[in-house]
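To: structure desk
From: M.T.
Subject: fold request, one chain
Message: Could you run this one when you get a chance? Sequence is below, nothing fancy, just the single chain.
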Amino acid sequence: MSRTAAIKRNTKETQVAISLDLDGGPVNVSTGIGFFDHMLTAFGFYAKIGLSVEVHGDLEVDGHHTVEDTGIVLGQALKQALGDRAGIRRFGSCYVPMDEALTFTALDFSNRPYLVFDAPMPQERIGEYDSCLTVEFMRALAVNAGLTLHQKCLYGANAHHITEGLFKSLGMAIRDAVQVQGDGVTSTKGVL
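Reply: Done. Structure tokens follow.
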């Protein structure tokens, strides 16, 4: 069974094209925001998925629409690739230390979107990336993927390290959650 998706979303603010393969492949990312490219590349690598992201956004305004709309489309692609979610482990969690920062992600492909995000950013900017956009990306991803997502920075002093830890732990938690372990839906209800 193919666990792939390809989705495009075009608005007056952004043009987003994302394809993914939950069972692996190359990772290629171009959003126009260097740090965001770095984060999505790390996410794809640690999730062990094939991922292609091509985004053209209104960066002359700022990075908000580019980052949020990428989260929307990536969430939609995850949802499509998972189908009815039969056989997947469903849950995943991971701690990631990044130098002085320690981050944690726990998630459930529950089909009940929810975000709890507790990761204050000590610096407002990371290169050309506004650090407040991380929560916007995670919210868009969770809502569109049908993902219950909890993320926390236990401690840290550098917004780059905190954000990178969050993206890497997200990737590793998703890698665990989408593993196929059977053929039935992992729910006492019998459906997600």
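Reply (cont.): Residues 99 and 161 are 7 Å apart (CA to CA). Let me know if you need anything else for the meeting.
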